[in-house]
Amino acid sequence: MNKHLQIILEPEEIISFLKSKIKLKEICINITFQKIIEKVAREKGIEVTTEEIEIEANRQRREKRLEKASDTVRWLEQQMLTPLDWEVGIRNHLLSQKLASALFAKEVEQFFLHNRLEFEQVDLYHFVVKDEKLAQELYYQIEEGEICFYQAAHIHDIDENRRYKCGYEGKVYRWAVLPEIVSLVFNAPLKQLIGPIKTEYGYHLFIVEDYIPAELTPERYEEILDRMFGQWLNTQLDYMYNNFELSTL
Asked: Is 175 contained in some domain?
């Protein structure tokens, strides 16, 4: 008896499965995005060279520690890819990057300067309790050294995840802070207990460990570029749907 079970997947089965998981629309949208990228890149004369594909392939090999050719072949088989599939994927990714840069590279710095406040961060410790009396008691106990902030957060915070991390929120952008407390958070003296502040969620106590000014780092540059490119793609998609132009791509 053959111990190895061979299963052949038909295209119709794959499509049916994607429909059942409500994934087909997402995939169709991504395919349409790629067609938009191809169309606009052709119009602008943007191409990806064989050398650029090879450089990126080598970078991925190093990243995945595929030191030998046989390691790469084995990895491709595990991903159910042929070398050509991999090459096409790399080429599509590089073409997308090149088009994004051609369209928006000159606008990224301007966008950052106009929205600088939104990229400021604080390193924040924070917890919330439902009861005002408890919040006041905890404030005074922390101030008097009867309990430390982190222990109070671990015991009393209404958020289970934050309790586990003793109130640590991490590095938080301005836009991610509740509007009712954002001004207090970003103007608080460092390492000073603030609160209790009432919101619809309860009574907040927090400590700002550090203030992180906005900088246009390479990572943030890519983040803004990707966001602008993604918004542009969605706009193009909406336009084509509204004007029934998908068949012309």
From this structure: yes
